[in-house]
Amino acid sequence: MASNSKLKLKLLIEKKSQKVLFAEAGKDVVDFLFSLLAMPIGSVIKLITKESMTGCLGATYGSLEQLDDTYLLSTQTKSHLLNPTSSTTVSTNSLLLLATNAPVDKLNKYYTCPNNGSYNPYQFHNQVTDAYGTACPTCRKGMIMEVEFVARPIVKQEEDKGEKGIVKGVVTYTVMDDLSVMPMSTISSITLLNRFGIKDLSTLQEKTVGLGLPEVCGFVCTCEE
Q1: Does residue 190 sit in the same domain as residue 216?
Q2: Does 171 share its domain with 198?
Q3: 216: exposed, middle or buried (Cβ count in 10 Å: 0-12, 13-18, 19+)
Q4: Is 114 found in the same domain as 18?
Q5: Are 93 and 175 members of one domain?
Q6: If you count DSSP H runs as helices and E runs as strands, how many of each does the chain have, helices first?
Q7: Helix or strand or coil: residue 203?
Q8: The model scores a pTM over 0.70
Q9: How much is the pLDDT for 23?
Q10: pLDDT of 42 higher than 60
Q11: Within a 10 A sphere around the Cβ of 125, how many other Cβ atoms?
Q12: Residue with more model confidence, 123 or 67
């Protein structure tokens, strides 16, 4: 996967102070935020009171707790995230979207003995190795003749067209600076603007940013402080 693979956030910024009021996010970002609760730290969050929660995951946990089930693909997943165990698994690919540009595995080369089938027509040297020059167990000659590896045919399975992840993608979500999440609507946006004392929309600007591995590491560390 390319190293520039990032989730996208649309920030609403007050121009003068350059303060981020809130962000508009899609399903992929919200899935990622909630999937953080599947980490072991989720067990710690559940054990402490909301008043004593520190860092961003406390607000994220509360958001999931309050999120209406109509926005969720599975109430069972919600239960697993709010009550994590050591065996909790969440079906989401959100974290994979932020994978680094890992080196692609090269296809291994395989070698056999050059005497295979010719040294003795009744005695095949049927051993192979991935280490060039390894001594043949039969005749001790170096195994240097490359052989082709034939992989099993890939059976194309019918794609599961069902939606994956944690939340439904039919709506857009609002993400606050403490990483609390709520479904976005016209009314909720107006309410937030009033809360910030915004009277003139011309004082605002939108900015789309990417959420990648460096940013994730940054706020995960903040969550654990």
Answers
A1: yes
A2: yes
A3: middle
A4: no
A5: yes
A6: 6, 9
A7: helix
A8: no
A9: 92
A10: no
A11: 21
A12: 67
With H, G, I as helix, E, B as strand and everything else as coil, classify residue 150: coil
Collapsing DSSP states into helix, strand and coil, what is residue 10? strand
Which has more confidence, 77 or 219?
77
Q: Which residue type, as a one-letter code, is found at position 118? A: S
Q: What is the full DSSP assignment across 128-180?
A: -BSSTTEEPTTT--EE-EEE---PPPPP-PPP--S--SSB-SSS-EEE-TT--
Strands 134-135 and 142-143: antiparallel
CB atoms within 10 A of CB 187: 8
Minimal CA–CA distance to 37: which of 57, 51, 11?
57
Structural contact between residues 113 and 136, judged by C-beta atoms closer than 8 angstroms: yes
> Rounded to whole angstroms, how far apart are CA atoms 146 and 149?
9
Structure-token match 């039919």, residue found: 170
What percent of the chain shows pLDDT beyond 90? 28
Report the amino acid identity of residue 160.
D
**Does 131 lie in the same domain as 92?**
no
159 assigned to some structural domain: no
Q: Nearest CA to 169 among 60, 81, 92?
A: 92
Q: Decide: helix, strand or coil at residue 18.
A: coil
State percent of the chain over pLDDT 70. 65
Same domain, 19 and 83: yes
**Domain range for 92:** 7-98+165-223
Residue type, 120: N
Domain membership flag for residue 103: no
| 69: its two tokens | 């089930």
Q: How far apart are CA 129 and CA 7, in angstroms?
A: 43
The total domain count for the chain is 2
The pair of three-digit structure tokens given for residue 59, joined into one six-digit string: 């607000």
